[in-house]
Amino acid sequence: MVVAANQTGNTNFTAATQVTKSIVVNQAATAVRLACGTIPTFLQSAFTLSATVSSSAGTPTGSVSFLDGSTPLGSSTVSGGVAAVTISSLAMGTHSVTAAYGGDTNFLASISGPLTQLVEDFSVSVASSSGSAQTAPAGGTATYSLVVSPMGGSTFPSAVTLSVSGLPTGATATLTPQIVPGGASTTNVALTIQAPSMAANIDRKIPFGGKAPPLLWGILLLPFAGSMRRVRKRLGRKFSVLLLMAIGVAAMAGLSSCSSTNGFYDQSTKSFTIVVTGTSGALSHSTTVTLTVQ
């Protein structure tokens, strides 16, 4: 800044020499305070970093860059002394985050102190003391021991909700607890499956499994018995042998009909892969168990 002074003089004074002085106005110092509303957080969960830029000389303008160590996370314009970004891309682990204010015409650049942000994950698994395969009779129950554990930290940043899929038709599942609350540590979960009853496996749509039993064939062939006797007299012993063979084949077919997987009394053993999934926000993990119903 340049300031000039001049005195033109009068009858009593001679004119003064003009004096010019330069005045330098320095940029004002600033301070940056960084805050985060969610510490710690899960992977893929969004959280907001907020930087407040202040100065005793007024309200700074410009922009703030947010850094994970030396890695840029994003930038934002200062509005009303505040700049903020929302991110969800940090990897699991501990991160040292800072906010760097770039300054403007009237205010100096500055950087915040480091803020430690912890990003966690979790796992869902079958307990080592429990098998992942269970067998239950029709209408019976099977129980599995599961473990839900935080990874990268000692407690869960937010709640984990569990669900079950892949159950056989007619079966039900109970998880205890179904929700692991935020702030909890490693949690044991009991999964109890009620297997479907025997009636659920009986084929009621097609009697005899779609095959006619030998008795029915006998009834259908009864009207032709007289003709068959006359033919037998003509053919003699050969016909008798052929008739016995036909009856034997029919009987075997009837037995196989009763023992096949499509029979009316069918109650075959079946195995099912059950999926247990834990979800928190956009993050989810699963494990599987096997249920065999006899």
Describe this structure in words.
The chain has 294 residues and is mainly β. The protein folds into three domains: 2-113, Immunoglobulin-like (Sandwich); 122-200 and 267-293, Immunoglobulins (Immunoglobulin-like, Sandwich), CATH 2.60.40.10; 203-259, no CATH class. It has helices at residues 214-221, 225-235, 237-259, and strands spanning 2-5, 19-22, 31-36, 41-42, 47-54, 63-68, 71-77, 82-87, 93-101, 110-111, 115-126, 133-136, 141-151, 160-165, 172-176, 179-180, 187-194, 270-280, 283-293. The strands form four sheets. Strands 4, 6, 7, 9, 10, 11, 13, 15 and 17 form a nine-stranded mixed beta sheet that branches. Strands 12-19-18-14-16 form a five-stranded mixed beta sheet, with no helix packed on it. Strands 3-5-8 form a three-stranded antiparallel beta sheet, with no helix packed on it. It is rod-shaped and about 170 Å long.
Question: What does this entry show, briefly?
Answer:
The protein contains 3 helices and 19 strands. With 294 residues, the chain is mainly β.
